[in-house]
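pipeline stage [seq->struct] | target=Pimeloyl-ACP methyl ester carboxylesterase | organism=Sphaerisporangium krabiense | residues=205
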Amino acid sequence: MAPRLRSGAQAVVPGDFVLVAHSMGGLVARRAAERLGPRLRGLLLADALPETAPVYDTWDETTKKIDRMLAVTQTLSRFPPLARLFSGNVRRLFSAGTYRTMLAEDFTPAGIAQTREEIRAVAAAVPRFRAQPPALPKCPAIVLSVTRAARGRERQHAAIREHQRRYAESLPDGRHEEVDSGHLLQAERPDLVAGRVRRLLGHDL
């Protein structure tokens, strides 16, 4: 499996690269980092959720609630005006071109079906991640925590930030930063994300 992953990465990115992951994608990226070899110059975790975070204690129930909401959204997404209505929360965060692409690919019955499948796969994998966490990355890593919590989730958000900080401190070559942003950091602060990628490529922590 490791050689296949390395050859796939070589085909997409022929040189050295930085792996960037957001939210629950941090678990996937950290597992991938175990197999990507020395071309992986850095790991950037943008408000990623460590497996130790208490949010995962009740993740099965959370997944069921999300899936019920997405099932309704999947049906409504057949009608473009409704798709634009329920995707309005991301419209202001992305450029017009990116938002049009999201409407065409993500906020459709097929796109939402894929999202539901991915969320269920993550829920099934979380116990395995918690029982056997990915190895610490051998490359430099930056862990970004956002400072703005969603309304009503301030306590959960504070706990997540603390676990992000602890994870960064456990790394042999890691750094933790707090960023003035909401959870969609890559949309709100793209210049900052790009700057941290450049820093990792230069190994300037």
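stage status: PASS
auto-comment: Residues 109-131 form the longest helix (23 residues). Residues 7 and 153 are 41 Å apart (CA to CA).
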